[in-house]
Amino acid sequence: MKSENTQIPDQFNINQLSELTGFSVRSIRYYVQQGLLDKPEGIKRNAFYQRQHLEQLMLIKKGQDAGYSLERIDQMIRHPETFKPTPEQQAGVLSVKTHIQLAQGVELVISPDQAGILADQLRDFAKQCIESIQNLKEKNHD
Amino acid sequence: MISGQPQNQFQQHEMEQFGLFAGRQPIPLISTSFTGQLKGMMTSMTMEMVFENIEDESIEAVYTFPVPDGAIFLGLTIEMADQVYQTIVMERKEATNAYEESVTDGNAAILVEEVSTNLYSMQIGNIPPQTEVKIKYQYSVLHEWRDGILRWRLPTVLAPRYGQSGLAPQHEPEVDLLTKHDFTFVLLVEGLLSELPCMSPSHQIKFVREDDALKLSLGYEQDVLNRDLVIHFQQDGHKEVDVFSALWDQDFNNQYCALLSLCTPDVTDFVSEPKIIKILIDCSGSMMGESIQQARIALRQVIQEIRPEDKVMIWKFGSSIEKLQDKPVSINQVDENVFHRLQADLGGTELFKAMNSIAKQGNTFSVKNADIFLITDGEVWNEDSAYSKLMDTLGNKQRVFSVGVGRAVSTEVLNQLAKDTGGSVELVTPDEKMSARITSHFKRLYAPRINLQNINWPTHPDYVDEYPAIFSGDTAYIGARFKQKPVGEVTINATYDEGRAIGWTCGLSDKPYDRNVESETSVLARTIAARQMTKSGKDVSLKLAIDYQLLTEQTACYVEVKLAENQQSDGQPAIRNVPGMMASGYGGLNEVFCEQSFDAYEIADKEESMEYLDIPAFLRSSDDFDIETEKSVIADDIQLSANELSESHLILARAEKFYNKNNLLPINKVELLQCGLGEKLIDELLLGLSTEKEISHAIALFLYEQLQCSLEIVSKNFSREIRVRAKDEE
After folding, report:
1. What class has domain B275-446?
2. In this predicted model, what pLDDT tens digit does every residue of B432-451 receive, in sequence order?
């Protein structure tokens, strides 16, 4: 009996890829447009896909099954070395964020470590925001 | 005109400022215009969208857009390089495959699919660089009288909705806070409606009489696609609206079709059994701002409408559900501070869970009739499984009456709930009079419904719509198809819920329906086919959709535009999604700050302040009024400053007082002063006018202008007098 791999050709057109993966032709083209899937070789009807595309599509499927958004799947494919699956939110887990009051009713919520912003930069940024809001209000009063 | 790519960072920044870029990608939709004709009770609308590819590569533009409730697709054309191509409706899979092949071949093509109720997605593949594409999308809508008001609504934007849309990723509507889409609008109203008072609570509208028609257009040259455009037509007792009328037209294969319209009279002498009224209020995050304030007003009005013999229970919901009144009590036992406990602070919109939970409550109480009264912005996707579960819980016993609040309410779930439970929906934008709408909603809740028993047609029909149950004061349509011309008398026999009989007769003339739009298939026939489809199996529905060229969930429309070889793409165009604007008022993001729009708002304190809410936002008094100059809606030569305009509701109220006392409108400067107009404004108004006739004319036009904006707060006699005089003087 032949192994499964030998049954799959090395190259496929978009319709064959659609049949193999269960994704619609439109979805495959959409993933190419969004950069989740590499562009095929060739153009128009001569465009063909290879095993790498098949593997990428399988990864997309895996990501979708895990409930990831396309943005998260993109990170997973493009930057597997830094990708961390979001841990399920456990009861009792603390999430600490910095809330900076900019004006009455306007608050800046930030996780400085995730944002990669240093304290100095954050100070400058908050200052700019406060000034912008003040300018906006003064402009309205004029 | 924008052409070419931005040359430098500054240019790109400028274009971003004007909303022409989403992130770093240009947005291909450059203009939208709506041109319609409202004749009889049907609007035929053409939505023209111009797309332009300003990039150096071929693109595929994707745009998901809303259409009005019950809109019937009439056709779609695409214009490229001065050539117009008509799309064809075909089975969805076939159209999708054909579109994919066209795009792969490098040719241009368009595909339009219905992705959800009243929501369509358009894909235009392979728009070559530096090319403009014009799309004309045509549809028709049948309107209804509801308690003396015809509410004409054009949705222009989708607010973000809660839950899983279930849409393919490319159809998922995007919203971009920085995007701005301009539009223009012209509606030509013919027939009876053109003679009735009308006003728009959502936009500034210019009304111009053209021969026998009334032309409505935007007061400003253009506005933006960020809220529903709403126009009210009001019955005024002088022009009788037909209770029962009938139209017929030719159908396929020498067949005929007819559509009956029944606008039932009010019932005032009926007292329904005591009820339990379960009130459920949406307090999710999307309700923040104007919507939650509307909900508070609505709740206050609801409580005023509930009778002493009824029992009431109140909940609020978001991600969770909280009881405000946990046991069924009489209305006078409800905590008077209940309004203050409504804040948009309960997170997500778990509508179905909340409805399920309250449907099970209070049913063991001695009062048997329970109805649910829901106040929400409806911003939730309809999830089939959750909806079916809810229907099972509701059974056939509990009707759902909804009030849809906000400037871009989502009607999909609310309409479905009303239809499936025998309830009803009222939509109210923040500038509409909530009290009147709640009153008429309660009239439905207490009144008996009218159930059609049989219809005697002049000739035997091959097909007749399922008979609807109608609330008195509302409109119902019934379609039918015939082999022979249905000329003669048609009679409807019906009974009220409690058994009383009622009937109507009208004639079908020998003249067919005067078509608004030239097309091979009658609009009337298509409307009836669309109604038939909702009650048919899949195969019959698909056949009807193809025969009558209707866009449904089973079909899509498509056409290919063959391109010269040097214009063809490599089959892989870059995708350019057209994001929608952030809906006005969504999540508290208002165009006018809430404290300004609702500055006089204090629940349960001042009756006066409630009346104040019924005045259009831009007329309300405010220190920080942000519109510099409002242009006259009828006479372009009268221009008022914002401060003066903010006083205009007072002027109108005083003019009405003057009218009631003297039985005459003010006709000179002294009388205008008595009406509270500032001397400066009067002098500006009457500048250069000398004769009594000229002055009287200017005053009539001025009052007419105020009337367009605040029609609902004055008496019918007063408004009629102003209209007649403004018209006579013209």
Report:
1. alpha beta
2. 888 888 988 988 888 888 99
